[in-house]
Give the backbone structure.
Amino acid sequence: MSDARHQLTKAKRIVVKLGSSALSSDPELPARLSEQVAELMHGGRRFVLVSSGAIALGVTRLGFRGRPREMARLQAAAAAGQSVLMHRYETALGRAGLTAAQVLLTHADLADRERLNNARQALGALLEARAVPIVNENDTVATEEIRFGDNDQLAAMVAPLVGAELLVLLTDVEGVLDGAGRRISVLEDGSEVGALVKTQNSGSGGISSKLDAARKASRSGAAVVVARASRERVLCDILAAEDVGTLIPRRGSPMRARKHWIMFTLRPSGALLIDDGAARAVRSGKSSLLPVGILGVRGQFNPGDSVRLVAPDGSEVGRGLTRLGALDVARAAGKKGAELDLLFGPRAQGLVVVHKDDLVTGD
């Protein structure tokens, strides 16, 4: 048993993500998982299930010939299918002696700090009450601007919300495969994960998305396992440190919740092009970004928005919350001292574009 696998036996809070294809191909999956969750909860563990499937169920319920493309019809299918999805979980978990609790989220809920903290507190209260939250994207109201992209990404954002030590991404393959089609047991190297994200299939919910979600969750303090949903006792085996699926261990010390939010939840509204000196200073983690180090601006953004920091070679140095809007940053770019005083008057004193406390480097 590897040490990385052994660490999984200590996980107390676990997020499990199930995809539409796994649910549709295996109607007994909710019942099997519920039995395992009930068994494992006797040992003090707590579970959150992030489940797709509402739209697929709604398409059938509404008699659509196939998955619609129009947003309104997709939202209608989500509304019709969500109650069916929850009924399946309520029935399965109820038979196992557990209580299901529906939690619907949009990206906007987690992009707003107050709403995010409300979601964290609600999920925490549900876990303390020994309920099993069933989390899904609120597809009935979601639009392209407020969607997570897929539930792999949602699961990666839920993991730090509940302080999860383990994220299990269940799919219809046995794990991440190498170039010869063999299962990779453990992916220790974060850069290897990043490289695989670029080479694996990139469709919504595909292995590429799961690896990207794993990269994000592993920085929050959670190990990640990608495994086949149809395995008979998949959750029990993973938590017993069996060689199941592909394990991506957590990376280093957990990133602080706010830093993780800035880096992985917020969507950048624009970019700041910075010079080499500023890039070195930012990478040190000890310096704020000042106007003198800025070469240019891309996009439209307001104070408080997330922006990417881009070096002259095009690489992303980090992300942060800007204290100035795009127009003011463009006016201040490359300037210092008397030039800033002339432009901003008293505001120029100690003018910072991105403060080090609002700045995250690397991934």
